[in-house]
Every structure is written in structure tokens, then in C-alpha cells.
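Section handout 9: paired folding examples.
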Amino acid sequence: EHASEALPGALPQGQNNPRICPYGLYAEQLSGAAFTVPRSKQRRSWLYRIRPSVTHEPFHPAPFPDVQMTADFSTSVVTPNQLRWRPFPIPTEPVDFLRGITTLCGAGSSARKDGFAIHVYAANASMTDSCFANADGEMLIVPQQGSLRILTEFGIIEVEPTEVCVIGRGMRFSVQLVDDASDPPAVRGYILEVFSGHFELPELGPIGANGLAAPRDFLTPQAWYEDRECSYTVHHKLEGQLFSASQGFSPFNCVAWHGNFTPYKYDLKKFCPVGALAFDHLDPSIFTVLSVPSAIPGVPVADFVLFPP
């Protein structure tokens, strides 16, 4: 459970949804799981906003159909061959994070809440007065080139190469490029999207109480907000299709929040590896940073694994 407030006293005390919230804010619950799942699997956060998130125009199909994202692999080409590819080129025309996403491969379907997708992104422009929310699944963002400044409803996350960031299902976020040595600025990296479950720390088993990724090293953002009226576009992905809606204010107007369903980041340099000290190679599962469990015990939907130097 985490909590943060950008103004003192903005978090209600003793209840989640008082009749009148401090500062006249609106209370909203963001659910990352069904209401009746076991307590250990429950994911939810309460956000206290200046304006309700539902105050927007109706959604319509997004006006840029050239985005190459897929969320249903039931009819995709299947191959048993090993594949590799060169780094995706940085666009020559202005392309932001959302428009720069291309799906490489995957399995399952977001409509059935089963499987995953692997994307790459390549961009050279910040998202301006626009944000993205993914109703299909949770996204693990892995920068390979260039740093990202990610605005979320919970606060700001800055992530650079050797760090990773997780954005939960349905969370609105906007990606800005951080000034660096490249001219013009450019970013590139990978995205692992899972259609079911959440990224979790793997069980340690015989390793013991310590090792691999430590829970304390996963950082959640501090509450931050902007009370700004503007012409804003919210992009929403549902079953692989992109929709857009207009609203007259920034969605990042959450003054305070508390809960356990939040975006977070992790510095891979803090990973504590375990290795073979006498002979042979141990299985690569000992290098698991985050895992998404499936309905079958011990069989993950996807693992994110680090092979340290």
C-alpha cells in the first residue's frame, strides 16, 4: 500500500470516499482487478482529482490508422524459426511515443484476457496535450536509447536505459522526451504487454529471503498535478483498436492518491543475481526480475529476465 499527496491534507482520513473531499476534490477508484478476487490478488487505488476523469467527449476511432499495434494473434503467421532483426530506425518525421509503437510478436488475445504482445517503439517527439491509456493489459517499458519522462495520474516517472517502468491497465500516461546528447532527441526501446494478470516478483524458494530484485527498490511516483485548461486528446486502446476523445483540461489533475495499483520503476543495476559457483549453468529462471503468473502454478504468462555482466 502506497500513498502520496501534492497538497497537505488532500488525502481523506479514515475513509476513501467522504461526502465532501478535502479541497473539493473528486474521489475515484481505479481498479486493477475484479472486486471479489482474493485479498492477496486485489489491486486498486483511490485518486482525488480536480475534475472527474469521465468528463470528456465520446470516443471515436483514432485518426491515425498507420499505427502498427496488434492485440489478437489467433490468425497471425506462426513460425518455428528463430528470428532476429536490426534496430528499428529513428523516424525522420516527427513521431511521438504512441505513433512510434510497432508490434513484433505475441500470443493469445486481449479480448480473451490471455497472452502477451512484444512491441518496439522509436520516436523523436514528445506527446503534446495528449495521453494514452491501455485497456488491453499492463505494459513493461524498457528504454534502449534515450530517457523518457512519463507523466501519469499518480505523478511523474523518469526512466532511462538500465531502468524499466510498469504502467498498469487503464492508467493514463503521456511520454515526453528528455533532452540528451542526441540531436535531434530520439528514443527507442521495447514494450512487453501482458493481457492477463500483473507483473509480480518471482518466488525465491531455496534462494531464501534475499536476492534477485528487492521490493524496496521499486519506486512509485510522488503525487503531482496540473490544473490546466486546454484542448486535450485522450487515446484509448481496446482489443487492439485505438480510440480518441477530446476534453478541455489535462487529465493529470490528481492531487492525492493511495492504494497498491500504481505505476512504478526499477533500476536494473540494483538486481542481485544468483549464479553457479562450481560447475554447469543454472536455468535462466534464476535471473527473473518480474513474472506474470498464469492459472497453472509455476508456468508464467511471461517473464522479464536480466542477464547481468
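Moving on to protein 2 of 2.
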Amino acid sequence: KMSLLVITVLGFARAATENGRQVLFATNTEMNGNDAATCDMEPMLQTLVDAEGAAAVQPTLNVDKLGELYFLPPEQIRAIDRIGFAIPSDWECQSAKSEGQWACPSGVPSVCRYYHFDLSSHYNHTGSWSNPSPSLQAFLADLPNDEQTIDDTCAKYVCENYLSHFCCDFVPSISNDTLRIVGPELCGDIGEGGVTDFFMSAESWGYESWAADPSVSVHYLSFAVQRFEMGEEFGLALYSPEQDVVHIDSSGAVEFLPLNTKTGILIDESIAYLFE
């Protein structure tokens, strides 16, 4: 098995192997997003050339990660033909992509998937559910999705009354009447130990990252670089023909910004796709 970071440059592709040795291999055929994941390494490895010798006749990129591209001069960045990187398998839902073949407009990032966790320990705070008001009693008796509806209602209650959180953009719509009538009793005030306290105290409402989400696997995405934009404060942006963007800031952090989405996806370059 070999895990690769591939950047195609003027007819040559550069790769970082598992043991960290830098190599160049000639490419006579273009690798796309589909065949890159199943490419046969043997013909490529047969055409290996010594990196030092190739540098004398071909431009090379002395980088191990996409984040390092920000620090290269424009003439080297201009030579980049194609990039590839590991992404979550459900990236369209992670970014809530609104258009396209695999659109997922109601998608939620892994960091906001509180509904994957059991929050029932926060229910019945201070024993208030033991003797519920008629309104709360009617609400609890007619839940379409049981615990998920409670958690969604309390997430929305917190977003509307206490907090502006990144995840608020991904909480399902709940009627204002429901929030007003049952919100305080259902969710609790701050400090009462209810579901409100969970959302107020948790920096991440779901998983630490998409890599920690057991429902997500690793996919590989590759695209041709059609154009780029760079600036000292702006960073570096590499555009695909479909106008999706990989943005690299001045710290080297990499974010994938697909077109027509609510949010981008942070690229963890410690995660590699394994080419069999």
C-alpha cells in the first residue's frame, strides 16, 4: 500500500511516499478523480527518475503538504496542473451543498451532529418534567422523532435566546410558538443542568472533526487547477474548472470550499487516502 500527496507539474507528478522519500514520476496520461484512486503504481515506479537530476531539467515543488504551497513564489504555483487530497466521504453533506449531482442542502457538519449522542442525562432537569405543564405534557406526548425532536428544539431554543454558534446554521426549523411555550420548561435555564447547559458549555456540539465521526470514511478528490489567486493577507486560492476552491491561509491551514455550500471543509493533511 502507498499513500500519496500528488501534485502534477508540467508533465511530471511529485509524490511523498510513506517513508517520506521525495520522488518524481513521469506521467503520459492524465489522472482524474476516479482513476487516481485506482491507479497502477508499477508503470509509474518503472519511470522513476532521480529527484536531483530531474530538478535540473524540470521545475519541482519542494513541498510535502498542500499547506506549504502558500510559501512558494508565483512562478512555481503557476506550474501546478493538478492537486489531490483526502476528504470526508459525505463532503456534500458536511458542507450542505445546495446544487449539483450529489446535492445535500439539509446536510450537517460532523462537528454539529449532536443527534448522534445521547443527551437524555440532561432531560428532566430539576425534576421539572415529573410534573409538566399541560403544554409540555402535550409536546412530550406527540413527538415525531422522540429524543431527536427534544434535542433539535433545545438547540434552536439556545440559538434564539442565548448564543450565536456556528452550528446554529444547521439546526432544523422550529416554530417560534413552540420555543416560546415549551422552550424554558423543556430545555431549562442556564445553570439548571438541562439540555440548554449542554449546548452552552460544549465548544463542539458533535464530533471533534469529521475524521472522528464513525459514519464517515475517507475519500480522495483530485482536480485540475484552472487558475489561482494569492495575496499576503488573503492567502492562496486554487480553483477547479467547476469553481470549487482549495484555500490555504498564511499559517498553512487548508480548507476545501465547494461551490454552492454553506460552509467549507477543513483538510487534515495528517489523513492520507491509501492507494491499494
